[in-house]
Amino acid sequence: MLRPLPMKHVRLLVLADDLPQASLTLAQTESFHPDNRPPEAEALREAPGRDYRERYRQAAARLEKIAKLVRVPEAPDIGQVHVVHPDELAAVGIMLRERWNQASRFEESFRQLDEEERLIRDQEAALENFANLQIDLGLLRTKTRFLDFYVGTLPRENVARLQGAVQLADHLLYKYLERGDTAHVIIVGPRGEREAQLSSVLTSAGFQALPIPKDLADKDPARKRDELATRQAELAGQREALGDELRLWEQEHRGGLLDARRTLLLAEPFVTLDPTIHSAGRLATLAGWVPARAVPELAERLERELLLPFDLTARDPRAEERHLVPTVPVKSKWLAPFAMLVKQYGIPKYGEVDPTPLFAFTFMLMFGSMFGDVGQGAVIAGLAWYFRDKLGRFWRFGLMAGLSSVLFGFLYGSIFGYEEILPALWNSPIHHPILMLQIALGYGVAFIVVACLLAIYNRLVVRNLSGALFGHHGMVNLVFYLALVWGGLNLAGSGGFGILPTLLVIASLAALAVYAWRNLDAPVGEKILVVFIETLETVIGYVSNTLSFLRVAAFSLNHAALSIAVLTLAEMMGAAGHVITVILGNVFVLVLEGGIVMIQVMRLQYYEGFSRYFSGEGHEFSPLRLGDGAPKTSAPARRS
Which residues 6+ apart lie within 8 Å of 355 measured at CB? Predict the structure, then answer.
């Protein structure tokens, strides 16, 4: 499962008249990923089917505009599959043009209603702003010869400071409304030379002027509010009547719109292949990537359904085009949520090891060991199962994470933090901290070694021998790391690093330094500095990366310590308080520590695993396909 699915580059030569049928057949097999590169033959440079594509795009655009007003399923049951003739596509376009001319009247009517309702809402908001201001609003719309009026809002904490400031300018401030942290005020005073100074003070205080609509100034606010309510009710009635009329129109034309959607779905493959299709006269070519195991079935399908002669050739990808070959994603529904997490980092290049199975296994292993508890794991699994409809494919991820926690909970003998109820099948982390740290270090070493081996394999696959030997996390790096681990074990056991591990460390570092020196084009001084820094980084990097896995043990200890803290607090309560504290404490541990553990596991996977062997620079296999309602295996109707 770690190896990518082998792919073939296929080229299909057909007569131009058979292009729509060939496109439809390729879409039904769901195995053809288009290759949009120009053809190798210079003669095949024409782009056939231009009128067909233009008719499709016009019809599709009109249908999408209609679908914004009425419900037109995006993937209806296509039923009988057939080749869409250009005349049929043109007829669909004419019909949709007529339907859009009718539907656009509804769109314009709804737009006018929306605009009028927006104006009413604006006027209601203005009325709300001035409801508590008992004054003729008409006087406030324009400044008089002798008085200035300012009506607006500012932060409530600035009112007292602004009140003192405006008094210095011979103005008065009156606060008539408070709403949350905002105060509504009116400022009045004589016109004069201090007007510019006052404007500066208002700006610094965060004052925002409230415009007074002319309609509010000319009428009593209470009467205006009644008028607005009446008009809003009238608009609601008009909207309901217009909606009823639109629903009747939808029922009348629903069948035709569904037929148009089906026709466009059947015509879509030919249009989708637009960048891939090239021709010379009546001869056309299609190129793409197909899984190797699907090539025989594709050839058989084309032989059965194409009426005119064709030629299908398949070959292995060339070395220089590996970066163009798509990667087929994992199909297992249990691995699908892990594949989505892997995809957040990137997509494997063709030829690279697919990390999803290894990622799933190590993820569950680390999460369970860091969050081992039978009760809490059962809660996680139960919630994932209960909310499976809302979680989609991720419910399986939650279920497996919970079951992993349950498994390690039995090993630790922990259920909702209690370690006296279940007998531990192995050891409790809190009682054997040194052992947990040793296991975490051993796991880290194994994880890094496997990651380096995968990095070496990925480079050997693409015949990058120098990278496999001397590149980051290559063979020489692996020898250095294993020698370093060997010497560390000797230090822990006998107190000495050992002669052979020392020689291996020195030899591997020297080989890396010589390789870096020869491949660095720079002055001698700069070479010395860069080689020294890279060599030092290699030593520090592997040591720090290994120590990073101590967090696996640290969080298993932290989980047990938090549970002890919760139970200690519960012991200090009465009977009811004990139960409540245990429940709330476990919720706290589930939410807070569960999230932190998830983040830490992802960090170890991304930075200690993927960064070593996984480039993430590939692109996903995206085959040509029909709508979801189309049959995948039944043969389409032959053309007459």
Answer: 2, 342, 348, 454, 609, 610, 613, 614
183, exposed or middle or buried, with CB in 10 Å at 0-12, 13-18, 19+?
Answer: buried
Q: What is the mean pLDDT of the chain?
A: 86
Please report where in the chains the tokens 């020196």 appear, as a residue.
517
Are the C-beta atoms of residues 338 and 356 closer than 8 Å to each other? yes
Residue with tokens 């820094």: 533
Listed residue (46, 61, 122) closest to 96, CA to CA: 61
Within 13 A of 470's CA, how many CA atoms are on the CB side?
15
Q: Helical H runs in 273-348?
A: 295-305, 336-345
Exposure class string for 33-48: b at 16+ Cβ within 10 A, else e:
bbbeeebeeeebeeeb
**Tens of pLDDT, residues 517-549:** 888 888 888 888 888 888 888 899 999 999 999
pTM: 0.72
Residues contacting 171, CB < 8 A, separation 6+: 148, 187, 188, 189, 190, 198
Whether the Cβ atoms of residue 567 and residue 417 lie closer than 8 Å to each other: yes
pLDDT (average), residues 248-260: 92
Taking the C-alpha atoms of residue 174 and residue 269, their distance in angstroms, rounded to an integer, is 70
State the average pLDDT over residues 30-54.
75
Predicted local distance difference test score (pLDDT) of residue 638: 35
| Residue 630 binned pLDDT confidence (cut-offs 50, 70, 90) | very low
DSSP codes joined into one string, 495-530: S---HHHHHHHHHHHHHHHHHHHHT--S-HHHHHHH
Residue 133 to residue 174: CA distance in whole angstroms = 10
| Cβ(287)–Cβ(9) below 8 Å | yes
| Packing angle, helices 433-461 and 356-370, rounded to 10 | 170
Report the C-alpha gap between 285 and 297 in whole angstroms: 19
Residue pLDDT, tens place only, 93-145: 999 999 999 999 998 999 899 988 887 876 777 666 666 656 656 655 556 66
The sign of the dihedral angle between the CA atoms of 500, 502, 506, 511 is positive
d(CA 61, CA 58): 5
Cα 299 to its chain centre, rounded Å, is 36
SS3 190: strand
- The dihedral of CA 291, 294, 295, 301: what is its sign? negative
Backbone angles phi, psi at 20, to 5 degrees: -60, -45
The values of phi and psi at residue 408, to 5°, are -70, -25
